[in-house]
Amino acid sequence: MVGARIGMRLIGVVSTLVLVRILSPADFGIVALAQVVYAVLDLMTATGFNMAIIRMRAPQAAHYDTAWTLGIFRGAFIAVCLVATSGWQARFMHEPRIQPLMWIIAGTALLASLKNVRLIDYNRDMRFEWITVFMLWGKVQGFIIIMLLAIFMHNYWILVLSNLFNTLIAVPASYVVARHRPRFSLAGWRELFHFSKWLFLGNICLLTDLQMMTFVIGHYLGMTNVGLYQVGQQVAALPVTEIAAPIRGPLYSAFSKIYHDIDQLRRTFLDSLAIQSLIIVPLTFGLAVTAPEVTVIFLGQKWIAVAPLLPIIAFYQLFDAVGHYTHTVMIALNRQRLYAITYNVSVALRVPLTIWWALEYGLRGAVLAMLVTAAVNAILWNAQVGSLLHLRWRDAMVTIWRPVLAAILMAGIVLIVSQRLPVASGSHDVVLRLAIEVATGAIAYPVLVGLFWLIAGAPAGSPEAQILRTVRAGLDRVEMLLPFSRRPAR
Question: What φ, ψ does residue 213 adopt, rounded to 5°?
């Protein structure tokens, strides 16, 4: 799943590099505002039925048919609400161009609800290679559509029409990938709603968490700032969205199979946390210290105002990822009530502080408020899961201290090297400067992690040891394939 997400992101990066040179920050802001109401309705009506079916020991056809039927009702409800509120949304945001965009988004939402429900089985059976193929194919076709649209138009319509055309292709394809013909039925609604009832409250918090910034910035700080924040978040959140987020799906499938064994669940939780920290933490620190160069090279000079926001957004996304990692454990343990209550507390802290700092300090203040609340919420979430898994803070610290300390020292080394480099006078100099900084970090971090691993006694169950075993196994296979190898084939 991580490989699929990285492949999708590489395609998305090319699309973004093209679009940021065609479209303005205001264009991105208009589409972001047009999609806000859809995002709100999508999360408010999210059922969690897929998660319920994944957790079931033996789901019946009635469960699939009920989930599919209710999904269509939900899609129709979202489409009607979008069309009905499009005029109000345009007046509220003082932007009349939003209304027709919302009509297209409504049609896309209705079409998407027709997708084949039996795609869930690939998650249940942990056949993620097929999900990878389906996701990558969808991204490739979306890229082709965007490039074709970019030939004929140079405005914000590219962003919404590409989603519509992509959905027109993806829905029929889902019935080819999973050969199942669902029928209208509500026979399995009791079991599905019993599992999902508390998730509705959690979804309200989730939509507030995800969409609050767009509302606050759009209403108080203007369209250009919405575009700056949206693009900055897409870049700064890369380590989280491309590694941490795609891992959650497979982890939930795994947790759902072992939730009855707390000891095994605790070990799996810590192992996954260790592996993710080893990768995500240095990428976040690296992105933070190279933000000016990343902005100039990948976004262009007209987006230079994003550069000081990238480090703040990167760290708030890191802390949010640490907190959100615990959600799958709570749901797998059927603790949705605790999940919803904890989420309400975290959002109650975040919303007023973000609005206050946005009014006082502008866009930078709003992003700083997100960072502060993300750090507090990460502690809150992990305290709750710690009690469920009988997990001590010391266990988590032992798991993550090596990558965290190595990343901090790596960032310091990169900054020292960066200060000794000459000031860039052209685009080629900026590329060279970024290349040197990246190479410095790529050398410093593994060396530091390896040193700390040896100081810790080279624990055999650590992710560093797993990586070493994987590398050695790969080298052994390569050596056996070489014609001059003296080692006997096994």
Answer: -60, -40
